[in-house]
Specification:
It contains 8 helices and 4 strands; from the N terminus they run βαβααααααββα. The chain is α+β, with helices and mostly antiparallel strands. Strand 1, helix 1 and strand 2 form a beta-alpha-beta unit.
C-alpha cells in the first residue's frame, strides 16, 4: 500500500499507539472525528512504551517503572498477536475496544478487560494468553521501530505520519489534547497540525497541562 494514498484514494494517516496511554487514546478519538470531516483514513500501528523506555527504567519514578515492567507489555503483545493472526483490519477495532475498557470504563489493563475487549470485536479470548508470551515480540519491536524511526526517540505515544508535499512522510508526536475535539473543532485542529508540521525546521509547541484526560 502506498504511503501517499489508501485503497480508497484517501490521504493516509499512520497512527502508532500504546493502548495503555490515556493521552494517545484522546488523540485517537480525535482522529476518528478527523476521518468524518476530512478526506483522511487512519492506519493503525502498535508502538510500545515498555520498549521505548526499556533502556532508562532506572531513571523513571518507581510507580511508572512498575507500570512499564508489569502492565505495559501485555496489551501491545495481544494487539500484535491479533494483527498477525487476523490481519491489519482488526487493529483499529481492537484498540477501540481495549481503550474503551481501559480508560472510559476504568477497568485498567487487566486480563479481564483484555478478554472482554477481544470478545467485543469477535476475537477468541485465547488471544489474551499472548500477553505473557514473547512469540511476536520481534514483530512488536519492528512496528515500534517503524514509527519511532520516523519521528525520533525523544517522544512518546502517539506518533502520526502523513504524506508531505514532497511525497515523503512527515511524522510528529501528538497532538496532546483533551477532550477529543469533534466536528469542526476536530477539522480545525487537523488543519493546523498539518500546517505547522509541514514547515521545514519546525519541532515543537508546548504548554503546561492543567487537566487530565477527559473521557466522553
Amino acid at each position: 500500500m502506498s504511503e501517499n494514498s489508501t485503497a480508497t484514494g484517501k490521504t493516509p494517516a499512520d497512527f502508532w499507539f500504546d493502548p495503555l496511554c490515556p493521552w494517545a487514546w484522546m488523540t485517537s478519538r480525535w482522529m476518528l472525528e478527523v476521518e468524518k470531516v476530512r478526506d483522511v483514513e487512519v492506519r493503525w500501528h502498535v508502538m510500545s512504551l515498555a520498549v521505548l523506555n526499556e533502556d532508562k527504567l532506572d531513571e523513571l519514578p518507581e510507580e511508572y517503572r512498575d507500570l512499564l515492567e508489569n502492565k505495559a507489555w501485555g496489551p501491545v503483545r495481544v494487539v500484535i498477536a491479533a494483527q498477525q493472526k487476523h490481519g491489519d483490519e482488526i487493529v483499529g477495532p481492537l484498540y477501540t475496544a481495549l481503550g474503551t475498557r481501559f480508560h472510559n470504563l476504568g477497568e485498567g489493563p487487566t486480563r479481564e478487560a483484555i478478554v472482554g475487549a477481544l470478545q467485543d470485536v469477535g476475537l477468541p479470548a485465547e488471544l489474551a494468553d499472548f500477553a505473557d508470551s514473547d512469540v511476536y515480540d520481534a514483530e512488536l519491536r519492528a512496528s515500534h521501530k517503524e514509527g519511532i524511526d520516523k519521528v525520533g526517540q525523544d517522544v512518546g505515544t502517539p506518533v502520526i505520519a502523513v504524506p508531505g508535499s514532497d511525497g515523503e512522510q512527515i511524522a510528529f508526536f501528538g497532538p496532546v489534547v483533551t477532550p477529543a475535539p469533534k466536528g469542526e473543532e476536530a477539522a480545525k485542529l487537523w488543519d493546523g497540525t498539518m500546517l505547522v508540521a509541514s514547515i521545514p525546521g519546525f519541532y515543537e509547541i508546548k504548554r503546561t497541562r492543567t487537566q487530565g484526560p477527559i473521557f466522553d
